[in-house]
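A.,

Following up on our hallway conversation. Structure tokens first:
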């Protein structure tokens, strides 16, 4: 079964946790993973890898370095990514327990958190809980990247999430629109959580 057909089937069954009908494209994957360091041994956490569109891009940037932890709540997606990328530690878990997972692995913090989660499908409470987990694990100089679909930017959940990002991070920059993605999307690059005592 292709990634696209798997994605569509999982969207039909779980629209509030999958959030899209097709995997992200290569251009969006390149933009969202651009913060992954090209040297050193970084800890990269991926939230909601789906069928692995961002996973492959992270792996290419890491080139065998560091630690790549991917959290996926959908068992079918998790199994698919684990088979395709055996060098990635894939965990069937909710993104809100991210802090506990890093502690259990003696990882002090994440250098980069890349999110493929469907934020616009989440309630305000759910958005806050997951974002709190993200800011709780970001290390000094850490970066959080996530994306939004261009057509949905004016929807109430998307606007609420953007306001939440602005209240949570000192710096939120918006990347270019990736028109070749289906649907077109852009990336938020977020740095320096406000109130973080690091």
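Then the amino acids I'd put at each of the 198 positions:
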């Amino acid at each position: 079964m292709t990634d696209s057909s798997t994605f569509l089937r999982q969207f039909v069954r779980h629209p509030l946790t999958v959030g899209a009908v097709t995997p992200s494209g290569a251009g969006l994957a390149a933009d969202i993973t651009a913060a992954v360091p090209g040297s050193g041994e970084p800890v990269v956490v991926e939230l909601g890898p789906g069928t692995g569109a961002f996973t492959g891009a992270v792996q290419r940037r890491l080139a065998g370095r560091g630690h790549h932890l991917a959290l996926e709540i959908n068992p079918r997606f998790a199994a698919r990514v684990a088979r395709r990328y055996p060098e990635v530690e894939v965990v069937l878990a909710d993104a809100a327990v991210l802090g506990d997972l890093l502690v259990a692995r003696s990882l002090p913090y994440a250098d980069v958190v890349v999110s493929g989660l469907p934020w616009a499908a989440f309630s305000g409470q759910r958005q806050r809980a997951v974002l709190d987990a993200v800011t709780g694990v970001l290390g000094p100089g850490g970066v959080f990247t996530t994306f939004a679909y261009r057509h949905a930017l004016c929807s109430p959940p998307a606007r609420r999430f953007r306001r939440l990002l602005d209240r949570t991070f000192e710096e939120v920059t918006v990347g270019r629109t990736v028109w070749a993605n289906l649907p077109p999307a852009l990336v938020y690059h977020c740095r320096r959580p406000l109130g973080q005592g690091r």
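The radius of gyration is 15 Å. Curious whether your intuition agrees with the design.

B.
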